[in-house]
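[09:14] KT: can someone run the structure on this one? pasting the chain below
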Amino acid sequence: MSELETLIFDDAPALLETAAARFVDAVTRAQQERGRAVLALTGGSNGIGLLRALAAAPAGIDWSRVDLYWGDERFLPADDPERNEWQARQALLGRVPLDPARVHMMPASDGEFGDDLAAATRAYAKLIDDDLVFDVHLLGMGGEGHINSLFPHTAATAENSAPVVAVSDSPKPPPRRITLTFPVINRSREVWFLVSGAEKAEAVAAAHHGADRADWPCAGAHGTERTVWFVDAAAATDLA
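[09:31] RB: done, structure tokens below
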């Protein structure tokens, strides 16, 4: 049975310190058990903050045996600082000895598929076959409960079969994005939420109290082995 774990911290720095230590443990355990670690990264202040924390103390991980994917991406030019992949490279990926062939970034709007969002999405979907299982899928969360680019009451959030979908009208700019969907998220061994701020409290509580994922997408994400919420005290105020 999947385990739910909720860890509450005084502030975001304390949250990220513990998440980084747990991340190293999860990656090394996956490598010991299966020879590699397969990870889905997220953006946002905490997602990138976690990568910065790892860059400050990268010992313990064999980065050559890490396979990286992204939970979602903004369909922008490759050098646009708003791209999750660009931010991840600045924070960590450019500082550790990754195997470039094992870093699977989502296509940019000036890449191989040009400005064709549908073609870019189909190409990424080919990488996410039925055998791909993330050891850890990292998630940030918006105040309305969105995760990846799965927003309340959207077709992407309702998707139950396609592993990757295009989003052409995201309510949060930029409007065009590529995102993994619930079928992929929910076959991850562990799903980790990194959440801070009082504006997230209602969504955190909704997820913990079994809300409908259509209303609160964060409520629909679960790991097969463990779901871990790393939250600061401000985001946890409605849990009692």
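[09:33] KT: thanks! Strands lie at 3-9, 37-41, 66-70, 72-74, 136-139, 164-167, 177-180, 190-195, 226-232.
[09:34] RB: yep, looked fine to me
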